[in-house]
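Appendix B, record 7
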Amino acid sequence: MSGRDLIRMTDDEVGAFLAEPGRNLCLATINADGTPHLVAMSYGLLDGELVMWSYRKAQKVVNLQRDPRVTVLLETGQRYEELRGVQITGRAELVEDTDRVREVGRRIAAHSLGGKLAEGSVPDTAPERVAIVVKPGKVISWDHAKLEGRY
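Structure tokens (predicted):
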């Protein structure tokens, strides 16, 4: 078994890692000149999918309207034996339906705060935003704790 296979997370472990509250992710989109546009984003989970929201005129949204390819990265850990992470490459779907965008905003806020929110606890900026739904193509994961001190 390769070292890569030793540290790969199972699908359930990836799901649990993504569900851990309070973490942001890095979202990479492609600028018109081909360079990466990388931003930190709060996110949530809706129907098992990573979701974010953004104002309609934001650079990331402009990029996704032109080219829906994305990469997201979530990682944690300071020392080598603590490193855990998930990288997802795929396509982004932009959702403009205000009710769906509003639900995405609630999911993001709940994830950021580690629980469910009371109705009305998230300012309603949904009419000015779009939701970004990540449709995974390839998932790469690592959990160095699985090495149990072997390198």
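Remarks on this record: Residues 13 and 129 are 31 Å apart (CA to CA). The chain has four helices and seven strands.
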